[in-house]
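A.,

Following up on our hallway conversation. Structure tokens first:
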């Protein structure tokens, strides 16, 4: 490789400007964050903006049946591209970096190559995948799961949102029900740049994370049904209170995670009582349980112990239970050569680097099913994410994007 390409660096001001322009869509007032739940009007507006940037760069753009969007810069030879990317949908309390950084840094890598007149041997692609968050339509990483053939398109299009919308109808409504087939083209390799969303890199004063895998994810939705009753007249021993069962479960999974120890985590993120009124013992309670661990056996043990507790507690309260699996992905280990490439590039660029697993789910864990994959992490201030206060410094963003640039260049030159 000519010395010029190893000296290539991204333009951090241009990257920061795109991050700001995209964050302005669905902006959360008074914060740096944004809310663009999958397939909402805000998501559509964000999608349209990124497509415009892809068009401005003259990329070959495809939209597939689940709404994944890929832009390709042609290389010197035919064949599958070296792909980077992530997602631009957000949670309701989203930061401006989660997912967006991986996509916009991919555009920045391509624009840097074009500006330097560099045409890599292999094509280079940047993609954004539909509904990575899974917050509106479960499971998470849905678009990339369909892209790699992990779920049939027909099944995905029928998924109902927490607000009752149907995924396929929303995709049509926002104009992103594309014609490109799924499973999609298998990339030569896949690299995802993402903010860590946790406290590790900052706490250890390290600039780059070379991600070696993603922990297992178990999402379930639990509906407990009891008997609505008067809050004032119903003696405690006559109650069938699903609200109590839900609260007991939230307490149980917290205790379970503490007992199992790091990296086990447990979250009850969504709770809905019906009729949700101050003076009515609830008729029913629906809540979600998110369990994660890097060890599949421990994750299964956590699931089993929660399931037993739920059954016992509901029975004791004379309530019935329905559970629905929203997402279940085993832990993923990335390709060793890709992890080492990220480490080597980070060191050559003079950055401190640490091998580490990802606590969060990412599209890369799906692409790892079909091609050599790894991820590059940049530090998150105070470890905060899924919060509008999410922040990563310009120097850390620049370091991460340059590691991605040089990693992509090496992959595309072989
Ligand atoms: O839930 C996750 O880990 C990711 O943010 N979808
Ligand atoms: Mn993300
Ligand atoms: Mn996220």
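Then the amino acids I'd put at each of the 414 positions:
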């Amino acid at each position: 490789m000519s010395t010029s390409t190893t000296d290539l660096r991204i333009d951090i001001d241009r990257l920061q400007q795109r991050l700001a322009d995209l964050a302005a869509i669905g902006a959360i007032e008074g914060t740096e964050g944004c809310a663009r739940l999958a397939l909402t009007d805000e998501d559509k507006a964000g999608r349209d903006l990124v497509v415009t940037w892809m068009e401005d760069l003259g990329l070959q753009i495809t939209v597939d049946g689940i709404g994944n969007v890929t832009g390709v810069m042609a290389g010197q030879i035919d064949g599958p591209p070296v792909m980077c990317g992530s997602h631009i949908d957000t949670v309701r309390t989203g930061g401006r970096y989660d997912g967006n950084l991986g996509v916009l840094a991919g555009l920045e890598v391509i624009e840097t190559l074009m500006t330097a007149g560099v045409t890599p041997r292999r094509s280079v692609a940047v993609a954004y995948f539909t509904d990575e968050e899974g917050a509106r339509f479960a499971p998470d990483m849905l678009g990339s799961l369909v892209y790699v053939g992990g779920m049939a398109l027909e099944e995905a299009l029928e998924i109902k949102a927490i607000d009752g919308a149907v995924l396929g109808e929303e995709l049509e409504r926002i104009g992103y029900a594309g014609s490109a087939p799924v499973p999609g083209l298998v990339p030569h390799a896949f690299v995802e740049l993402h903010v860590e969303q946790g406290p590790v890199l900052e706490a250890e004063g390290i600039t780059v994370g070379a991600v070696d895998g993603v922990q297992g994810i178990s999402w379930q939705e639990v509906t407990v049904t009891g008997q609505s009753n008067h809050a004032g007249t119903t003696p405690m021993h006559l109650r069938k209170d699903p609200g109590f069962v839900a609260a007991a479960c939230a307490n149980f999974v917290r205790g379970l995670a503490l007992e199992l120890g790091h990296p086990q985590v447990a979250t009850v993120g969504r709770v809905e009582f019906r009729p949700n009124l101050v003076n009515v013992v609830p008729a029913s309670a629906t809540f979600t349980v998110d369990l994660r661990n890097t060890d599949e056996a421990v994750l299964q043990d956590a699931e089993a112990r929660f399931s037993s507790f739920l059954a016992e507690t509901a029975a004791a309260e004379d309530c019935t239970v329905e559970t629905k699996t929203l997402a279940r992905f085993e832990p993923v280990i990335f390709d060793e050569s890709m992890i080492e490439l990220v480490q080597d590039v980070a060191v050559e660029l003079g950055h401190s680097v640490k091998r580490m697993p990802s606590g969060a789910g990412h599209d890369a864990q799906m692409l790892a099913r079909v091609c050599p994959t790894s991820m590059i992490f940049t530090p998150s201030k105070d470890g905060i994410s899924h919060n509008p206060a999410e922040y990563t410094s310009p120097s850390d963003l620049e370091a991460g994007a340059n590691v991605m640039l040089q990693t992509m260049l090496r992959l595309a030159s072989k």
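The chain has two domains: 3-214+332-412, 216-329. Curious whether your intuition agrees with the design.

B.
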